[in-house]
Amino acid sequence: MEPLSILIIATAAFFAGIINALAGGGSFLTLPALVFTGVPPVAANATGTAALLPGYLASAWAYRDLIKAPAGLSVLAVVVIGAVGGAAGALLLLATSDQAFRAIVPWLLLFATVLFAFGPRLHGFLARRAKRGHGLWGRVGVLAVCGYGGYFNGGMGIVMLAMFRLLGVHDLNVANGLKNLLSAVLTVIAVAIYMAGGAISWPELPPMALAAVLGGFAGARIGRRLPPNVLRNGIVLVGAITTVIFFVELFG
User: Fold this and answer.
1) pTM above threshold 0.85
2) Domains in the chain: how many in total?
3) Under DSSP, is residue 179 helix (H, G, I), strand (E, B) or coil?
4) How many whole angstroms separate alpha carbon 190 and alpha carbon 146?
5) What is the pLDDT, as a whole number, of residue 19?
6) Residue pair 12/50 in contact by the 8 Å Cβ criterion
């Protein structure tokens, strides 16, 4: 690899590690960086996910004291259901062509950003249905979100945070702890499947993984000091900007 390419992908991975520790959306940076340096879209998504795995693990460890399951679920149930969803999403990615994946990406980003932006309003709807099976809602939500994460890592954290808000996790730092744990679990499963399917571009992996770990620790420290409103608005802004960029590329 050329030094410039290494610099581009390592820088993207570092800031992606920070973003993932704060709220998610790090693949908004790693995916375009890898595609820009010549990696095909599906391989870029798989490689970026693998590179960010150490960062997810580091962030989950940094938030370990804040991990509490949503009402109606246990932490073990969240982990097991998340692993199943991650595996299903990863298998689906391996069955998707580069052309189809390139066309789907902007819509997935749009979904993630809108869901998080309007999470507070949707929470009231879900809260009214809590007496009729909050636990079931939680299981379905975890399975669906982790399937999304296994398929498309970009915006995964945003969708997870939106889901936890809808399930009644009001403290954004607690939601971040859950998000980091679940991200680590499903990403371990997804990366194993990507490796078995030959979807990872190996030369780019080491510098990105190292940079993502450093970014993950830095982001976890920053996240505890940011006011919730600043963090929430930043999440929506990152998602909106990246969504516009991908739509411009798709229709431009």
Assistant:
1) no
2) 1
3) helix
4) 10
5) 77
6) no
